[in-house]
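User: Hey, my collaborator sent me this sequence without any context and asked if I could get a structure. I don't really work with proteins. Can you help?
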Amino acid sequence: MKTLDASTLQREVLGRFASGIAVVTAIGRSGPIGFTCQSFASLSLNPPLVSFSPSRSSSTWPRIREAESFCINVLSHEHESISNAFARSGSDKFANVGWTPAPSGAPILDGVIAWADCTLWAEYDGGDHTIVSARVHSLAEGGDSPPLLFYRGGYGL
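Assistant: No problem. I've predicted the 3D structure and written it out in structure-token form, which is a compact way to encode the shape of the chain:
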């Protein structure tokens, strides 16, 4: 029997809960920016709010916050490479990625199964993450493809 530290044990146990994958995008000072996020959830219908939790070490979230509006893109099962690209630092995440502007101008990635155009509502301390609540100003469904799921440290089930 292997002995696991508390963080590893928590990751393994809670990794049994499947989550969808989203990419949060905005138009920054030097062009489009974004990051992969697996903590996206609907929060409130009245007012219309969603939440997500970027890592405190994220260099992209502060730039998206500064942009004031952003779009949450829910990825389809065909977007594994996009999820991986937007999870990396220091690369051109939008290379070979098509997109159209949301009403705010934030990027809606081609082929997503849903998107929500938002502004920041509030931020809360979430330990090594920040809990972001965002007000939804517009949203729409995309294609009918199944979602990209993250489960037990990998994609799919």
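In plain terms: The longest helix spans residues 6-14. You can pass these tokens on to your collaborator as they are.
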